[in-house]
Amino acid sequence: MGNTSDHVDSGVRIPVVETANSDRGDLPMAGTRSASALAGAVWTTKIERARAMPPEEKLLAGARLFDRVRRRMLEGIRALHPTWNDQQIVVECRRRLAAVRAREERGIYTPVDPS
Amino acid sequence: MTSDQALAHVIDRLERGGVGYLLVGALSSNLYGVPRATDDADVEVSFDGFDVVSFAAGLGDEFRLDRQMMIEGFTGTVRYVLHHEPSGFTIELFRLGGDPHHQERFSRRRRLRVPECRGEAWVSTAEDVVIQKLRWARRKDLDDIVNLIAVSGEGLDWNYIDRWAKVHGTSDLLADLRAEAGH
With 0-12 CB in 10 A as exposed, 13-18 as middle and 19+ as buried, what is B52? Predict the structure, then answer.
């Protein structure tokens, strides 16, 4: 439990809980101490949960989370393009993931000429 | 097969084949930090007697080996990419090369029990995850390092990390990230 103080935002006095990590205020509404405190509290909770997870669960968690993200992407594309068939939706999903990958890998990898 | 099953299948095949390998990248930072979604698994492989084409063919019809090899600019490491078609997940196989840190990282690898793989898997130590991600220093790598230090920082061998950070010229960045993690 951190210290509490008051924060004035648009004339309204809002109680603020300060945590050890309240400087990690990088949420979209960052710029107010309340947002910063919320971000810090969320981050602290994430760290505590990660510490409690068994290592064997954490190793494959990234792949499981990817499957969930991909399912959401497929649903989102289907909602945007209701007339598309399954194949078109999968192709678009693949294209988007490849675009993200290309951005992340830009300047790091170069093709090897087999000759 | 889902992504995690595809990954477990590849690990299982590496184990059964007696291949020298090591799980690195996001898989290993998830292990010591805060798990996040990743669309690929990075596996460093000792290519002594390892035929990547035969290995890929033995994985089954759901897998496809990208014939285009890539080379990574920092360390000159060669990469092969295995695509798991149904899930969109990729497994990247990196050839263990002569990079001094990669050599030491491989020698320090440790065993982790992984029930999904019907046994154990070789994983990177937490220290080596930090050292490697400092070299990459992409936005997601820096977040991974901060999270890893926050979760596992108390048990890290900081002398070992500092030694390699000096070699790689990443000491200042490391200091900034430690401060951000409150360590």
Answer: middle
User: What Å distances lie between residue A9 and A3, A5, A14, B120, CA to CA?
Assistant: 19, 13, 7, 54
Q: What is the residue extent of each domain of chain B?
A: 1-124, 125-183
Q: What is the CATH number of domain B1-124?
A: 3.30.460
User: Smallest Cα–Cα separation from A47: which of B39, B125, B181?
Assistant: B181
Position A52, amino acid? A
B 38-57 residues with CB < 8 A to A: 38-41
Tokens of B117: 């793989």
- pLDDT > 70? residue A15: no
Rounded Cα gap, residues A82 and A76, in angstroms: 10
What residues have CB less than 8 Å from B148, skipping those under 6 apart?
A: B29, B32, B33, B126, B129, B130
Name the phi and psi angles at B75, rounded to 5.
-120, -5
Identify the residue whose tokens are 């890539």: B70
- Both tokens of residue B137? 């220093």
Q: Which residues of A touch B30 (CB under 8 A)?
A: 58-59, 61-62
Nearest chain B residue to A101 by CA distance is B39
Task: Report residue A40 CA to chain centroid gap.
Answer: 15
CB–CB contacts below 8 A, A to B: 113
Q: Is pLDDT above 80 for A55?
A: yes
Most confident of A23-27, B117-121, B124-128: B124-128
Q: If you average pLDDT over residues A17-32, what whole number do you get? A: 44
CA of A37: how far to CAs of A9, B19, B37, B105, in Å? 14, 48, 25, 38
Percent of chain A with pLDDT over 90: 41
Q: Does B71 touch chain A (CB under 8 A)?
A: yes
Q: Which value does ipTM take for this structure?
A: 0.87
Structure-token pair, residue B145: 């390092």
